[in-house]
Amino acid sequence: MNKVATEIDQVAQMWLEDHKTRISNVAKEKDFIDVMLGISETQQEKLSEYDEDTIIKAASMTLILAGSDSTSVTLTWALSLLLNNKDVLRKTQAELDNVVGKERQVDESDLKNLVYLQAVLKETMRLYPAGSLSVPREAITDCTVNGYHVPASTHLFVNLYKIHRDPRVWEHPLDFEPERFLRTFKDFDVRGQSYEYLPFGSGRRMCPGISFALQVMQFTLASLLHGFEIATPSDEPVDMTEHFGLTNVKATPLEVVLTHRLPHNLYS
């Protein structure tokens, strides 16, 4: 772990030094590290007790590492669900062919028009949220929640897995039905404003990498399903057994066979 941590720090330091050398170019678009460098310059007195480079590197890598693990877990569940629900897979690929066509690859600008694919990801995160429990919250004072006394300093976890499968809210809660997010729950937001559905948590301390994760998941899934036919070896059903940990991963690895579905020149 120490070796990996050192390598990650070296990568972050390289990014930071690169941004410092080109920070004078004010005309270019600013990314996250540029913004952090700007804040450190204007808030030097407040940050005097801390190492500015460490703050920037830690904040940057937190966004990337937190977003990458949960993203890969969610994409694995999405593919597993699609392989076990071929009708949904066909609908998703039909939408991709209609929006993108077969003469080019998916572009990020296409994502806003892929409403069924977005519903597939929403339904995946409902059934298999990357984190079954929310990050902990601490009660700063004694309080009463729904008739229960909660002493100060109590750490509270929200059971997202249970909320997302509550039969009082979700009809057929155990079924994979992306259409529900095109009808009854079409206005449900993944950003924590609908308390029946909180895949990224809610409030000021919700997942900080939500925008990064959503963009990566949508683009990766769209590119994969548009570019390839997917199947399991021997067309056997996917084992959906879960293994609970810090993230909600599959108990068994997902094995997929890919076959190209676009002109060969698009893969070069």
Structure summary, number of beta strands? 8
CATH class: Mainly Alpha
What's the overall average pLDDT, rounded? 89
The low-confidence parts are none
> Helical proportion?
40-55%
Number of helical stretches of at least 4 residues: 7
How many whole angstroms does the radius of gyration measure?
Answer: 22 Å
Kindly estimate the percentage of residues that lie in beta strands according to DSSP: 5-15%
- Biggest β-sheet: count, sense, barrel? 2 strands, antiparallel
Q: What general outline do the C-alpha atoms trace?
A: globular
Report the span from N to C terminus. Answer: 37 Å
What is the number of domains?
1
Q: What topology, given as strand order, has the largest sheet?
A: 1-4
CATH topology: Cytochrome p450
CATH superfamily: Cytochrome P450
CATH architecture: Orthogonal Bundle
| H-E order | HHHHHEEEEHHEEEE
Alpha-beta classification: mainly alpha
Cofactor: heme
Protein name: Cytochrome P450
Pfam families: p450 (PF00067)
Family: Belongs to the cytochrome P450 family.
Structure characterization notes:
The protein is mainly alpha-helical and 268 residues long. The chain has helices at 2-21, 32-42, 52-84, 86-99, 115-127, 160-163, 210-227; strands at residues 137-138, 143-145, 148-150, 155-156, 228-231, 242-244, 248-250, 257-260. The model has no long low-confidence stretch (mean pLDDT 89). It has 7 helices and 8 strands, in the order αααααββββααββββ. The chain has one domain (70-266): Cytochrome P450 (Cytochrome p450, Orthogonal Bundle). It starts with a helix and ends in an 8-residue tail after the last strand.
